[in-house]
Design brief:
The chain is an alpha+beta fold. The chain has a single domain, classed as Roll (2,3-Dihydroxybiphenyl 1,2-Dioxygenase, domain 1), CATH 3.10.180.10. The protein has three helices and nine strands, in the order E-H-E-E-E-E-H-E-H-E-E-E. Strands 1, 2, 3, 4, 5, 6, 7, 8 and 9 form a nine-stranded mixed β-sheet that branches. A hairpin with a 4-residue loop joins strand 3 and strand 4. It is globular, with a radius of gyration of 15 Å. About 30% of the residues are buried.
């Protein structure tokens, strides 16, 4: 069902410093910051030849990643995102298998439909599925 790894998301305490680290120390191509108020985050994408790293920073204390940052003040890996052909089919399959979907289908940072799967169902890792 899953296709390629779309991105690994890292929550960071300082988006500007994290962007500079990837750009300057590692020589990576990075995007401009993008605010996603509907998700409560600001993101920067680090472009790699085979995937992306998504740097996430909360827009407010109400952001879904604010609690993660409180527990992990230095930041850390937040989730992994895999591509699927059809998000509705993937969601139906996950429900049929008894997996917990967090929330409804939303439009993600890439402008495509996404769902998040509960970490308890996936070896402690929050999983995002994104339609190709």
């Amino acid at each position: 069902m899953i296709g390629k790894l779309n991105h690994v998301a890292i929550v960071v305490p300082n988006l500007e410093a994290a962007t500079a680290l990837y750009r300057d120390a590692l020589g990576a191509k990075v995007s401009e910051p993008l605010s996603l108020p509907e998700h409560g985050v600001q993101v920067v994408f680090v472009e790699l030849p085979n995937t992306k790293v998504e740097l996430l920073h909360p827009l407010s204390d109400k952001s879904p990643v604010a609690g993660f940052l409180e527990k992990n003040p230095g930041g850390g890996i937040h989730h992994m995102c895999y591509e699927v052909d059809d998000i509705q089919v993937a969601a139906a399959r996950m429900r049929a298998e008894g997996k917990k979907i967090l929330g409804d289908v939303k439009i993600g940072a890439h402008g495509k439909p996404v769902i998040f799967m509960h970490p308890k169902d996936f070896l402690g890792c929050l999983i995002e599925l994104e339609q190709k």
